[in-house]
Amino acid sequence: MSYRFAGIIDRYLLSGSEFTRRLRAVRPEQWSAPTPCAEWDVRRLVNHMTRGNLNYVSLLDGGSADDFLRLRDEDALGRDPVGAYIRSVRECAEAFRRPGALRQILDYPLGPVSGEQALAVRTTDATIHTWDLARAVNAPEKLPPELVAWIEDHLAEIYAGLAESPVSADTTHRFFAAPGAPPVAGEARQARLLRLMGR
Predict the structure, then answer these.
(1) Are the C-beta atoms of residues 52 and 125 closer than 8 Å to each other?
(2) Nearest Cα residue to 109 out of 70, 76, 74
């Protein structure tokens, strides 16, 4: 395993637990509330996260990039959105714990990627969407400082070699929102990371 991604399964689980904490706070009337992701309400955001976890498992099982994109918006929540998300985190972590999974080369939509790098992308996505969910349902927005720092310090490595990257000036922003505002003097790390990710 690359030293840059050491401990990535634990970081992924931390990001998942943070999302779960906000998810448990969603009230029945909030499932249709808007989120900072303009095209998604709360339910669609949670489905994106749940389906994403399952799609990463499928990649480890030999699934293709085309399959990943085709299934991206398929419902994964059913009648138990909270339970479905929690199960998807567990299944994803278990899949990446398989012998050799972190070194496996996956057919990711943005380009071939090792399992450990794919899980780093997934961890970043989960962390940013935790803030999106918190903002949508008026839950606490502060993210774990150690997770924020690790992601910001390793953004270039997390997205290295991929067709899109939040730190690339020429990215198309099909998968990543463009930075929404110029830098601010004395900007906190969480605010800086969120700005880089288009929040």
Answers:
(1) yes
(2) 70
Residues 6+ away with beta carbon under 8 Å from 10: none
Q: Report DSSP state, residue 41.
A: B
Contact 190, 146 (CB under 8 A): no
Predicted TM-score of the model (pTM): 0.91
Please give the Cα distance from 46 to 170 (Å, whole number). Answer: 29
Over residues 63-99, the pLDDT tens digits come to 999 999 999 889 999 999 999 999 999 999 999 999 9
**Nearest alpha-carbon partner for 131 in 28, 49, 32, 187:** 49
Q: How far apart are alpha carbons 16 and 19 in whole angstroms?
A: 5
Whether 116 and 2 have beta carbons less than 8 Å apart is answered as: yes
In Å, how far are 28, 36, 46, 114 from 80, measured between CA atoms?
12, 23, 11, 32
- Strands (E) in the chain, as ranges, are 105-108, 111-114
Decide: 165 and 176 in contact? Cβ < 8 Å: yes
pLDDT tens track for 174-198: 555 656 666 677 889 999 999 888 8
| CA pair distance 19, 179, nearest whole angstrom | 22
**Contact in structure between 51 and 76 (CB atoms under 8 Å):** yes
